[in-house]
Description:
The complex is a heterodimer.
Chain A: E1 4-13, E2 16-26, E3 31-35, H1 42-49, E4 59-66, E5 69-70, H2 76-82, E6 87-90, H3 104-115, H4 120-133, H5 139-142, H6 152-164, E7 170-174, H7 182-199, E8 202-207, H8 210-216, E9 219-224, E10 227-233, H9 234-239, H10 244-252, H11 295-301, E11 310-321, E12 328-339, E13 343-348, H12 354-362, E14 369-374, E15 377-379, E16 386-389, H13 403-419, H14 425-442, H15 459-472, E17 477-481, H16 489-506, E18 509-514, H17 517-523, E19 526-531, E20 534-540, H18 541-546, H19 551-559, H20 565-581
Helix pairs in contact in A: 3-4, 3-6, 4-6, 6-7, 7-19, 10-16, 13-14, 13-15, 14-15, 15-16
Chain B: H1 7-35, H2 40-45, H3 51-60, H4 67-80, E1 82-85, E2 90-93, H5 108-143, H6 148-162, H7 165-179, H8 195-229, H9 232-239, H10 244-274, H11 276-281, H12 287-296, H13 300-328
Antiparallel strand pairs in B: 1-2
Amino acid sequence: MSLVDVTDLTVEFGALRAVDGLSFRLEEGAALGLVGESGSGKSTVASALLGLHRGTGATVGGSVRVAGTDVGTASDEELRRLRGGRAAMVFQDPLSSLDPYYAIGDQIAEVYRVHTRVSRRAARARAVRVLERVGIPDPVRRSRSRPHEFSGGMRQRALIAMALACEPDLLIADEPTTALDVTVQAQILDLLHTLREETGMGLLLVTHDVGVAAESVDEVLVMRHGRLVEHGPVGAVLAAPAQPYTRELLGAVPRVEARRTAGEQPSEKSGGPLPDARRPDADGPRADSVRADGPRADGRRAVAGPSDEVVLEAHGLRREFGRGKRALAAVDGVSLTVRRGETLGVVGESGSGKTTLGRMLVGLLEPTAGEVRYEGRVSSGVNPAVQMVFQDPVSSLNPRRSVGESIADPLRARARGGRGARGGRARDETAVRARVTELLERVGLEAAHYDRYPHEFSGGQRQRVGIARALAADPSVIVCDEPVSALDVTTQAQVVALLGELQRELGLALVFVAHDLAVVRQVSDRVAVMRRGRVVEEGPADEVYESPRDPYTRQLLAAVPALDPAVAARRRAERRRAERREPALT
Amino acid sequence: MSGFGGLPGFVLRRGIGTVLTLFAISVIVYVVFYVTPGDVAQITCGPRCSPAQVHQVAEQLRLDEPLHVRYWHFIEGLVVGQDYSTGTSVEHCRAPCLGLSYQSDQQVTGLILAKLPVSLSLVFGAMVLWLILGIGTGVLSAWRRGRLTERLLTALTLAGTATPVFVIGLILMIVVCGELQLLPFPQYVNLTDDPEQWAWNLLLPWLSLALIEAASFARLTRSSMLETLAEDHIRTFRAYGVGERSIIGRHALRGAFAPVIALNANNFGSAVGGAVLTETLFGLPGIGQELVHAVNVVDLPVVVGMVLVIGFFVVLANAVADVLYAVADRRVVLS
Lengths: 586, 335
């Protein structure tokens, strides 16, 4: 009998069919990856395996058997024995997945005691043992820590320890490494791999990241809109996808090995002549009133591709947070130059100071020391010519304002600041609307979207709104802080293409801040690698990626999941050898 | 890491903060009363006083002195004590001296010390009841969310919030003492004199005050628990087969702790001086009643003294809440 046997599974939330007629099996000790973009229903499947939809109002059809338990018909008591006992789940966000008020060892012990009739002491000892097993140093002491005293990687290890406590037959991991840095991700995936080898438990890995699946599973199941697209051995599916969607998905995945191509040649979409956002004759005379006139705008337009002219410079930038003994330098002496029309990628893990640096470049944060120069002049405070696109397109738009109004804000601010005239208000309003409409169309949205609200848009569309808002101020530099990390890969590819297109046509300089090494390579002319507030390596993208000089850069690149399972296995072996030489812990 | 380590420093900082707060309160009360219209001497002396008598009273009360001088006397009395001439004899008022009542010539410090036990008895007892009733109701309605039990409890707590304390108090008194004659009509007995009678006599005041207050605690507990129940870590424990009883009692209730503590601090502090209706209804000679009386007759020293004591309890209750909060949640650092 299979460990997991799902037949014709359907899950409906009201009118929404999240999973639609899905069937698959997982044998004892095997590993299956459920891969799909957001909304594909992959996490819903994972929850259905433990019967977590029971009592939530969702309608579940078909049959799910896990480790001999029919999840659909099992009593509450049978279900409780299955959960954690025979099949355990590891969740995406290891911080919010643990109770902040209790010690980690106590939480593991509590779960253990649900499934075994042992004393508190014995359960506590078991917790320490499993914590040790997942590589938590000094497990006796650390078991008394609260989750906030653990780093992200250690929290995920603790969650895995909880899963191991009852020696389950099946481990369900729902995006287990999505919230983690790439080097930590590699460690966690290696840990899962080792544990599987040692315990022989089955693994169901839910992930949006094809690379993570390639690293960890034997078989992969691609899902889209709740349906199965393709199912087969991971090597076969990734090397020769049979379905067009799988091909599309794999095509959109940025590759860390690939030299930059996107953005240098026009994509099909931009083949026709698009209205140039800056040409006065393209949008009528009235739009002029809300735009900055002056020679800058026209001088910039002609530029295509990087030039040698430096637009933005950072000199010895330093930023501290906190005072006195608690002061921490998030950015510690960074000097950079950004040339007109080029893309500078800033890559680093969480806590490297890359976001703080980005905020100082646009003037949202005052540096503690050092200075930012724009076109050679020291710039302090917000400079309209340097704009920002934020990571989270949901929270960076006001949910109570229409997107058109959000894009119009910078225009109005400029009209007020620049002219100060009261008389032309009605005329200005018409002009603002015209300009916003133009911007919406420029980023691939429609004029009719002006009066819609952010919640009516998808993530990718919202990010387009964010880009339109940044363009509204007519900037020559845009700092993008993780602009695509909240998006699915296919959407990611579209947004990246849009940025490249805008850069070419408007001669924009981009500072692309991201944790994803592959995306950064895809978009950047030059790359700066940050660690602990400093730039450890900087240079032309291909040079940095192909012959990294700094050991940290090498470590980062080695941790990027490979899309080829054979390469992944080789790299894992290398990492293990390296680990034995110098054990690194999160 | 733990909030406990910073306790001495916290107490010191809070202590200084309390003194400054009380100082600010006293200045405000002095200024407010100074600019309030009405002849204090006339009111103090009574309607039948002759102008000469009124003048004499004004002199005796030092009403002719400018504001800052009077305020200085007040501070002096607090720190080192003061002598008061009451016409024939000289009375020494020991530090901390809050002055003499304009009305009764009694020392305000003594007056407060006499009233305070009554108020504290009322509020402490009521607090225990309102916490039990409120949190219990909140937990029950969070547990039984969406069912009949919850809807009934929601209706009850809504009614509780909407009902004035004297309505509940009157109904209780009429039913329990009048109709059923289970208890005599309440009359305050000192705790030190007869603890049993103290409790029996305070039972109805406790209940009426607690029933009103419990409603807001029930609503707060319920909403914070529901919020916690929607969090990811609750999902983790469900996915590990932990029973609903542990999830509610151990994990979700913990999330309600902080807001309940904060609300309790405020309500306790303000009830010390603010339970006027309950005190009046049940004839309890507490701070609230005395304060209302003192305000009516412009008895400045009594008002200032009472307001300072109430302020002290509000600040104290909040400081205790902060410490409890830091002990309960080690992410909180006392500062």
